[in-house]
Design a protein that fits this description.
- The complex is a heterodimer.
- Chain A is mainly α.
- Chain A has one domain: Orthogonal Bundle (MetI-like fold).
- In chain A, about 85% of the residues lie in helices and about 0% in strands.
- Chain A contains 9 helices and no strands.
- In chain A, helix 4 crosses helix 5, helix 5 crosses helix 7 and helix 7 packs antiparallel against helix 9.
- The termini of chain A are far apart.
- Chain B is an alpha/beta fold.
- Chain B is built from 9 helices and 10 strands.
- In chain B, the strands form 2 sheets. Chain B has a 6-stranded mixed β-sheet, with helices on both faces. Chain B has a 4-stranded antiparallel β-sheet with strand order 2-1-4-5, covered by helices on one side.
- In chain B, strand 9 and strand 10 form a beta hairpin.
- In chain B, helix 3 packs across helix 4 and helix 5 runs parallel beside helix 6.
- The longest helix of chain B has 16 residues.
- The chains are: A mainly alpha, B alpha/beta.
- Chains A and B meet through helix 6 and helix 7 of A and helix 2, helix 3 and helix 5 of B.
């Protein structure tokens, strides 16, 4: 075919695929740590927003609005470039000379973790609220404390119901790690961009990139469907 | 055990309990009857602070439950059984029963399991120890819930319409367990629509309507010679 004869997939593969393979490691690392951070933060925000103390609820709600009202990409850039500058400026005002920098992967994990944590907190909060109030009452009348009832009785039940939606967030997060390219994390997109600009094998390079994401996300989403099925049948 | 003076409960403008005064003695079986919405369950739930009273005072062994008593201690001594059982679905029957003795009373696992098996035998479900609650019928779940409450070795049990969510043919098993408890001397306050049970088992029957205690007395007095016209009218409808 005329089209294929003008493209150089074999040559591109030879050079790009090893680089993409090492990029997988970065994607996996960013996703695992980002997701852990997101779950912890999501739990903290969810529980905080169920607190009886109005100021805590208010502050968390404000934070949530702030994060959900700005794009993830902007947040990443802000954490990577602006936060260190601000810290150095503040230190300078206080009379210290500092040169704070955030490693790009660290900034990426923090940014993606905070962003996803905020969205996931809403899912977690709804799932906690959806557990029958009778469960809490049953725990309380047995002499358990409020927090023990929440953590030992209510949250384990809530988590069963949100595993599918947390799984969807996980798949989304894998794909969103491509945004980390903009804060100089050497993940798949940045590697592909560099390769394409050096070799001009643009069509081949980005085709391989898309395939690389599919190779992670399709099995992952099927794994999640399987877990969901297993949970339902148990 | 409980002395209640001028108890009031309001939700906003809605008065659910009005000027309730009563006494519950140790080992006494008290049944509370009355139409829906009369405040029976709310009264019961005020006794273990699942609902907070908005007026009046409740004393437990002479201590104001609002101010002078540790809520957790009160709840350990006064168990409760719910209309909808509220078993923990992620635990087996055995763990449902051993959980609180182990985590609240710090009982050793072997001891807690031995106790749980004794209690399961008592309620006739020893063969269901390793089953999850969802596999049980309503009547079986309620008997497990009773065993779970008994595992804390309470001085008294509160029953909030324990048979109202059950199919009619399952009610008998649960009532049989409760009768046995009464015969063993367990103090019980039972909110119920089972007039037969109230008549047969209670030491005292309380009739509530519209948030007031309208009449109280021995089962014989309430069921055979009710004085108040509202009691007469209610009993005429349900008996």
């Amino acid at each position: 075919m005329n089209l294929l004869s003008q493209l150089h997939f074999a040559k591109a593969a030879e050079l790009l695929i090893p680089s993409l393979l090492s990029g997988f490691g970065v994607v996996i690392k960013a996703t695992i740590f980002g997701f852990l951070l997101a779950i912890v933060l999501g739990m903290v925000i969810a529980i905080g927003r169920l607190s009886q103390l109005k100021p805590i609820r208010g502050v968390l709600y404000l934070f949530l609005e702030l994060i959900r009202g700005t794009p993830l990409l902007v947040q990443l850039v802000y954490i990577y470039y602006v936060v260190p500058l601000l810290l150095n400026l503040l230190a300078g005002i206080l009379g210290f000379k500092t040169d704070v920098q955030i490693a790009s992967l660290t900034a990426g994990i923090i940014g993606i973790g905070i962003n996803y944590g905020c969205y996931m907190s809403e899912v977690i909060r709804a799932s906690i609220l959806s557990v029958d109030k009778g469960q809490t009452e049953a725990a309380l009348v047995l002499g358990l404390g409020k927090y023990e009832a929440l953590f030992r009785i209510v949250i384990p039940q809530a988590f069963r119901s949100i595993i599918p939606s947390l799984g969807n967030y996980l798949v989304m997060m894998v794909k969103d790690t491509s945004l980390l390219a903009y804060v100089a994390v050497n993940e798949l997109l940045l590697r592909t961009q560099n390769f394409a600009s050096q070799t001009f094998l643009t069509i081949e390079a980005y085709t391989y990139l898309a395939l690389a994401y599919l190779i992670i996300s399709i099995p992952l989403s099927h794994l999640i469907k399987y877990v969901e099925y297993k949970l339902k049948t148990n | 055990m409980f002395s209640i003076f001028n108890l009031e409960k309001k939700y906003g403008d809605l008065e659910v309990l009005k000027d309730i005064s009563m006494y519950i003695g140790e080992g006494e079986v008290v049944c509370i009857i009355g139409p829906s919405g009369s405040g029976k369950s709310t009264l019961l739930r005020c006794l273990n602070l699942l609902e907070l009273q908005t007026g009046g005072k409740i004393f437990y062994y002479g201590k104001n439950i609002d101010a002078e008593l540790d809520t957790k201690k009160l709840r350990r001594e006064v168990g409760m059984v719910f209309q909808k059982f509220n078993l923990f679905p992620m635990f087996t029957v055995l763990k449902n029963i051993t959980y609180a003795p182990m985590h609240v009373n710090k009982m050793k696992k072997e001891d807690a399991e031995k106790l749980a098996m004794e209690l399961l035998t008592k309620v006739g479900l020893a063969d269901k120890a390793d089953v999850y609650p969802v596999k049980l019928s309503g009547g079986q779940q309620q008997r497990v819930a009773i065993a779970r409450a008994l595992a804390m070795n309470p001085k008294m049990l509160l029953f909030d319409e324990p048979t109202s969510a059950l199919d009619p043919e399952l009610v008998g098993d649960v009532l049989a367990v409760m009768k046995q408890l009464a015969a063993d001397g367990m103090g019980m306050v039972v909110v119920t629509h089972e007039m037969g049970f109230a008549r047969e088992v209670s030491d005292r029957v309380i009739f509530m309507d519209k948030g007031y205690i309208v009449e109280e007395g021995t089962p014989d007095k309430i069921f055979n010679n009710p004085e108040n016209p509202r009691t007469q009218e209610f009993l005429a409808r349900v008996l």
